[in-house]
Amino acid sequence: MAESPDGPFVYAKQGHTLDQIQYLRSETWRAMEDLLYQGKCRAIGVSNFTIRHLEALKKTARVWPPAVNQIECHPYNPQTELVEYCKKEGIAVVAYASLGGQDTGKKTWNVLGGKLLERMEIQEIAQKYGKTPAQVLLRWATQQGIGVIPKSGNVEHMKLSLEAVYGDWKLVGGDGLYDDDDDDVSNQQQQQRQRQGLSQEDMEILKNLDQSKVVVDDDNDESGSVHWNEHSRLCWVRDPLKMLDFD
To answer: What is the pTM assigned to this prediction?
Structure first.
């Protein structure tokens, strides 16, 4: 595939040209709309749509907004602008690769500072709440209103995933933190803290792990310019499909 003269566009070729992709997306959506009108499905959505993809689709769509946009989303690549756009438009966001992609090699992990599950910041937060690093990453997403779909065939892992979303998030005792036996904290305060999940401080720590943008020195701009950091994308790493972000 890498040797194809069409490059990454080989996926979408099938007799079409590059400048027809926007039209093809629109026609695909129209076919999905027809299924919705015929009662053959309850909702229709999209995946890996950028803001410009959604804006283009909005111009021709009969059904708007899409029910969901499924995207790669984790602290290294939170796609903040896209998530905010979807929320504004009433599009539910569902994250995949919440725990980090499986396509990434050692070189990329080294550039990013290590695997998400092994980051010291995440492990310290997990220890503070008596949770696993995976639960912290799932809670990071759901606490922002982002859906998660962790995949596992392990029953215990499934239970931990559910606990991350629906379970109590209370700090463990010791070092000035509180637990269920803290006499200075009322039951109401304890319940409120449990519902709140990760603290604002912890969410800020996770926010600072964002590596989706890098500042590149620019001779014409003393402050440099911000560019997309391709290393922060952890899925489709070894596949030309990752290049299909064109209009």
So the answer is: 0.82
